[in-house]
Amino acid sequence: MIEINKYGAIDIGSNAIRLLIATVTQLGDGPTNFKKTSLVRVPIRLGADVFDQGKISAANIERMVEAMKAFRMLMNVHNIEAYRACATSAMREATNGHEVAELIKKQAGVHIHIIDGKEEAAIIASTDLKTLIDDERNFLYVDVGGGSTEFTVYGQGEVLASRSFKLGTVRLLNDQVDEALWDSVKRWIKANTSELDDVSLIGSGGNINSIYKESGIKIGRPLTYLFLSNHYKILQKFSYEERIARLGMNSDRADVIIPATRIYLSAMKWAKADYIYVPKIGLADGIIKTLHQENKAKNIEVN
User: Fold this and answer.
1) pLDDT tens-digit series, residues 282-300
2) How far is CA 230 from the centre of its chain?
């Protein structure tokens, strides 16, 4: 007998919001298969408001409400069993974040969970990230977002340290990250990796996924520090407009990809890592896995 379930995951980030609809199938006691049925991304840059003005602007509130209405309609059409919407750094820091969440619940019928960095990292860790963590190797996991970056050190299959820093691509674009924060990140990475042998990075986030896709490297193989460093130099040679026109980037990717690459390269340098693995994982994937686990335990939260 084939068991088929369908779920929705909404990731409300500082740079964009995403709706992932996934179909989960399992034949008897066989392996569970997670298939991305639909992925919709809307470039509402909440961080540009929040990290500068402290709150979400009226214009972006209106855009969010309309986007959530569309997401709600798509989830209804796909006939999902359950969904979860999680908001990260921007809504967490916005003085009107909870107010906006209530408005969206009322007008769009979407309930939003505003989560902290630790919960965000835990949700992502529930994905296929686990399959990459070799018990005999050491890794620094780096998840770069618009408002923050989550770092987790794995040693011999165990979590040794984890920390979230307000080091995000949108903040960097807006010149809201000082050298003191960079120094704090540097000290933390060095302190937690210096005693480990042969550390590799695992990178997640839309920017590193974009670079990996364009690299042409076989899926499962890592990017090297040399490749990423050279790619960074190439990207810097093009203007924002040229990265859109000549490299075919989306307008909301063409600017943030520069600071994102800088974060990954810095982390590799400080951890003395030669390689960065790029699995196709993210917050939305983790939400889907979490919903399915809850469903199997017959303890799912139906919104």
Assistant:
1) 899 999 999 998 887 764 4
2) 24
